[in-house]
Amino acid sequence: MKKRANVFLWAGGILSGLMLCIIILGYFWTPYDPTAMDPKAKFCAPSLNHLLGTDNFGRDIFSRVVDGAGTSFFIALCVVAIGCLAGILIGSLCGYYGGLPDLILTRVCDSITAFPAFLLALVIVTVAGPGTENIILALGILFIPSFARIVRSEFARCRELNYIKSAKLMGAGGMRIMFRHILPNTFPVLLSAVTIGFNNAVLSEASMSFLGIGIQPPYASLGSMLSDSQSFLHSAPWYALGTGGAIVLLILGFSLLSEGLQLKGQR
Amino acid sequence: MANVLTVKDLRVHFHDAAPDRFAVDGLNLTVAQGEIIGLVGESGSGKTVTAMSISGLLPREKAQVSGSITLDGHEIFACSDQEILDILGDELGVVFQEPMTSMDPVMRIGPQIEECLLNHRRLSKAQRRQLALEAMAQVELPEPERIYRKYPHELSGGMLQRVMIAAAIVSRPKLLLADEPTTALDVSVQAEILTLLKKLNRESGMAIMLISHDLHVVRKLCSRVAVMQRGKLVEDRPVEEIFRNPQHPYTKQLIAAIPGRDRHLF
Ligand SMILES: Nc1ncnc2c1ncn2[C@@H]1O[C@H](COP(=O)(O)OP(=O)(O)OP(=O)(O)O)[C@@H](O)[C@H]1O
Ligand SMILES: [Mg+2]
Considering only CA atoms, which residue is closest to atom 8 of ligand 1? Predict the structure, then answer.
């Protein structure tokens, strides 16, 4: 048991760490300019010059994947940040104080989750128009209920614990109890929720961009690139493989990490 | 002498209990300044509910409360939530039965002892630390500086109970409510903690209400004993009088139930 948890945690940590390093490096430097076209080098197969080959405009796919992964990562980060912060705010108030507001907000969250998430994101993006900010906003709002529910149940559980009662008996006010005493005790649960949420955010953004309602050209994310690569599945299979592989590695890393964290929490 | 605590005709009824079953049924009790009073009674007799009422933390949606509790001039039932917060930890200190679960697991010992100061006094970090270390020395924790930086899981039950007491007395409350402070500890540590409470009472003149199952624990500590049965106060007299000449049949039973070997605990 102990050994397995460490394997998950280590593998996930190393993989995500590696991806993260490449992505952060990619914000400053990529082997080629991801948008520079080279008519002389269309559809080059992977080689030492072009690690993942080139696409129909002669752009270096590795550089584009790193750049696109950076965009995807940034969006996922913002989405999780919105979902997590708003979820903590709503969930903590509901869980700690309970009562009618709790009932109403829980029902609102339930009804948001009852909608197919995608449909809702689609509606928001259609109304607000596509674009990075709108994607972030749409997905961010969609992610609030799941975080709110987790935080709420943790707060409702902690509220009854002895050390919370004893903090009350020392004159601690509601805000102090919620954010100084209960919140730090929910971090283990929250952390694994964040890693899972991050995965979902990467996937949702990729699917939306894949369908063309996400990131718009000239910007590229992994999803929009995967969509582009479809047309060249036969002439340049490395395009789809490189992009898809990047998504898989990104997701796999964080899945392993969250699995490892959960196992660690159970011990 | 003035009274720190006056409880008049306290009646508590939980909504989920039978209509005629009061958890506390017309309790009258006073605690004088600097006095140690023992509140004893069988399990379920309403000792903890009494303590919770005094601390104003009885869940209002679960219980119906009537009567009056005056703590150092404050009428508890007339206080707003904020006023109760101002009293808790400042004029009233509370120590629970279970030291292990009564401390925040992810917070260091030092800041937890400073909680009351943080909530009630405007002090600098260094001043708070100083007072916390003083309180820790007062409850005879070895190496206060080192324990200050530890987490609860790194300490033993007896040490944690000392920490809890330090946290409760750091702001010099007028009254300390100790609800079975030694039940979770082994016998030798029990005796140490009780001796410590007596010392704190002597040194700072803080009144203590000691809630306990057994009369022999309170015998050496308290000057007065209040005996509760089924929510009612059945006897309230100086401790030696009660032992020499118990009036109420229930008190007689309690005294008869003290096992012989435990009479020499102290
Ligand atoms: N939260 C609650 N909801 C409903 N009933 C309660 C609640 N707390 C206590 N009671 C009832 O109040 C009565 C008195 O309980 P209390 O905890 O005060 O007993 P006690 O004297 O402290 O017992 P012990 O010595 O076991 O700690 C019991 O009958 C109990 O069932
Ligand atoms: Mg009790």
Answer: B49
